[in-house]
Structures are given as structure tokens and as C-alpha cells.
Fold this protein.
Amino acid sequence: MLEHIELFFKSIFIDNMVFAVFLGMCSYLAVSKKVATAVGLGAAVIFVLAVTVPLNWLLDQYLLRDGALAWLGPEYADYNLSFLSFIMFIATIATMVQLVEIVVEKFSPSLYNSLGIFLPLIAVNCAILGGSLFMQARDIPSLGLALNYGISSGIGWFLAILAIAAIREKIRYSNVPPPLRGLGITFIITGLMGIGFQSFGGMLTGDNDPPETTEQTTAEKIEEEKIIKEEIDDKKAVSYNDVINE
């Protein structure tokens, strides 16, 4: 349970797709002028990540990685289809995005029209593909953690675009200096928000070792320092004797 909680908060705040690795910036900047539009796109991104990351985890575990086909028989254990990762991941993402596009167009035509071209472009949103690639690179061990990572990464992206959309609606009526209007002030605010999100890193730091382990580690360090000091003294004594003999 602790592993799930740590992954959840770390993916939202510390490893945020926008503020930590700068993924999904195109949609983040283009669709963040209104809160309603940002909420719709953010919800779609959460859904796509929540579905595609676990599906791609299954593909990676049972089809793509080295030895993943061992379940078909011993003769397939040496096959490595990892070179197909990008193609398979993008195919999965495109399928889910198409499903989202159909559902949004059916039940919310106004949101569909406001999102415009950016809804089908979720398929090529680097944050969506990045979620699956990070899942693969970090070697997430279970399907539950993969689902957790997909949802939390989507929530992190959703919070980022929602926050910037709310701020941009407010600063529209503010006295912003002319050279900073538009993307200039948006990038500055994004940087400040990134600093704020990174400050949550302190939540996941601390000494989790039991007291016995800490005391043992301290004793080992003292012993190592004594050994090093003795070696240095021996070297000094040898060098001194060599000088005297000469």
C-alpha cells in the first residue's frame, strides 16, 4: 500500500509530466485559455493514460520484452520484440483516443467543438506516449502499479493545465507589462508553478532505516575510518624511515 501511495504522489507532484519533464506542452499552452476547455481535455488525458499505460504494460510483459514470449513455449523464449515497442504503444494510444473522440462527440458536442484539433492530437501527445515509455523504462513490477502510474500521471497533467487555465483567465484582466503578455507571462507562471510542485519532494524523503541499522552503519563507518587512519600512519612511518635511511 505504501508503494502505491508513494508512486501516486510522486507522479502527480514531483515527476509531473509538465513541470518535471516538459511533456504535453503543446496542448498545455494551446488549450489552457479557458478552464472549461482545460477540464475537458484534462479528463480525456486522464482516461487515456489510465487505459493505455496498463494495456501497454501487458504488451511489454507478455509480448515485447526479451523472453516475454516464454509463455508460448520454450522455443519462443529467445525472441525479443522490444523494437516494436513504439509501434505497439502508439497503436494502443491511437485506439483509445479514437474511442474518447467518439464518446465526447456523442455526449458533449460543445466540448468537442471547443477542443477542436487537439482532441484527436491526444494520440500524438508526448505526455501520453511518455507515460508508457516511463512505465517501461522504470520497470514497474505489477499491473496495479501501472494503473496507479497511469492515473496519477494523468491527474498531474490535469492539475497543471487546470491551474494555468485558471490563472490565465485572471491575468487577462490584469495589468501585465506589454512585453510579457501572452506566452511570456505564461512561461514565467509555469516556471513558478514547477518550483512549487517540486517542493513536494520533501514529502518522500526521510530516514526509513530502523535504529539498529543506523547504529550498525555508524559503527561500520567509525571502524572504516580507524582502518584508513592506521593505513595512513603506516605509510607515513614507512616514508619517514626511507628518508632516515637515505
